[in-house]
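Lab notebook: predicted structure, single chain.

Context: the supervisor wants predicted structures on file for every construct in the current expression panel, including those that have not yet been purified. This is the next one on the list. No modifications to the sequence; it matches the entry in the shared construct table.
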Amino acid sequence: MEKIFYPASVVVLGVSAAPTNLGRNIVLNLQRFGFKGEIHAVGKGGGDVGGVPIRPAVEEVPGVPDLAVFLLPARHVPEALEACGRKGVRRAVIESGGFSEFADRGRDLEREVLDIARRWGMRVVGPNCISIVNLENGLVLPFVPLEDREVKKGNISIVAQSGGIALDCMRLLSYENLGASKLISMGNKIDVNENDFLGFLLTDPDTRVVGFYLENVADGGRLMQLARSTEKPLVVLKANTNPVSHHAARFHTAALAGDDEVVTAAFRQAGIHRVQNLSEMMACFKVFSLPVIRGPRLAVLGRSGGQAVLLADAVHRYGFELAALSDDFYSHVRQHIRAGVIRMSNPLDMGDIFNIDAYAGIVEKALAEDGVDGVVFSHAYVASLEVAPSKRLLEASLSLSHRYGKPVIPCIIPDKHTWFSVREEAGAFLFEDVDTAMKALSRSLWHHRFHAAGKAQAPTARRTRRKTALAKGFMGPDEAFSLLESYGVAHAEAAVALTADEAAGAARRLRYPVALKTADPGVLHKTEKGGVVLGIRSEAELRKAFKAMKAGRCLVQKMAPEGTEVIVGARRDSEFGHVILFGLGGIFVELLKDTAMRVAPLTARDAESMVRDIRAAGLLNGFRGRGPLDVKALSRCIAGISRLLADHPEIGNIDINPLILYGKGQGCIAVDAKIEVS
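Prediction complete. Output recorded below exactly as produced.
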């Protein structure tokens, strides 16, 4: 990966001297941004671009370039890539479109390209991308003209599946006075993907924060592993959030654990910050350009009472608290007031302090307080009189933040004439909206707590026992119960019956009352199909129910004592592997949708943390006279399912709904279970 970002020489294929040629823009971008390595051009028609001669074939390029960049019609790429392989080139960026994103023939071309690359030991970025930007060394490879004066260098790197989004991010980072380090457009990522780039950026000293735009995840497990290995903030805008297919909705777990819900849960589990739009992404970048906040206690400063009220509301809305400020702090403030109408409190209304240069001293005094974890200030200025001192305040806030190792969040709405210059001349960013600022700052606090709690350490999936693969298809309930029981999941006693006499005999052994259920593996929602009769108290009732059910195979089950119904399930996700779900159960589970999810594997401790994530978690601790429930038994049950999935990765779906949970120390039992092996 090093030579993709730091090549000593680059060859661009598909260049001509024609003004409309896009390949020439790559050569000119390299020159414009001061790339110091060798630049070579290959194309038809001869001539030169910016003094770089255009050679007719890669074989005529002197030496062996470290990196080849292709902007040719897709059909010509395999032949050119083969020539580069023979030449000794081992890294390629294919910017050309017309591959799998375009037509089926494009998929065949991708396979051909990949075969050639593997034969020559080449790594390939793309195709269908705008390539790489490394502002550290001027390696700027997009085929669109870029101006160095419009791009600000910083320490935020972007990895995107869309070239347009990558360029948008670069512009926004410059407009917000944050700056970029590296930008990567991956395109169809047939070889090098986001995990490969992330692995490199985590070791890159010039990258402090990594942002992603993803339309799909190449290997979710690997992404989570990399995310857990670092404290660098990872911010992801995940698009292409389509609902799961109709087939998946046959299982409660699949309907509740949709593709997008899995992504959200997996990212949170790995400490990744998911955002919904570019504005939210930029807000995260602003906050993470400051020291991470290590506690919830804030000093809140405003130039008006209204600003202070809005800030105080946002403080509580996003889980912060107003710090208790010392008498020494307030004594410092009193030195600068004019009319003596300021109330000494937090939030602090500084409307009676007209010397804006004094504000920086107040910010510093707040930062010096042991009971303050960060400062947020909202500032308004008179455009004709106070622009210069406001710029100094903004500049000082950034400097003080880094000096004290605590974030200082500036909320300022500049006038239209100085909208950009206030940021640029102060060398700082700002927030225009206090709610946006506080929401972003809450991510910083969550980031600190995630890593401080050691949540980045994940269990490893290990097969606990050697097992032969399970038969494909839906298991009968008796088979499902037996398999679950071997992993510590208890169930209500039951017996399979093929005839009414067998059912009556089973009921006598189990003792009434009993439930009668269809044991047909193809019936997934038994209640809706009339496949469940509960509370049968006599043989006559049982025989009547058996006849009415018209099932060739039935399950007679001992009625379980009443308890709290929950659902525990799992499904295999195409991007992240097995995910485990927990929530309030019964027939209303899809209506309530009060669930929590984790990517397997899980320990009992992980499971206990997961079950407390649901909105109704208070029910687990006891509610209105009801005692606490047996969360430990529930957690062991979930951990057992995690072990089952590790032993049998061929399992596609599991539903235990309901699992009846009893009081503390009384355990839990499954009364219905479905397992699909795929």
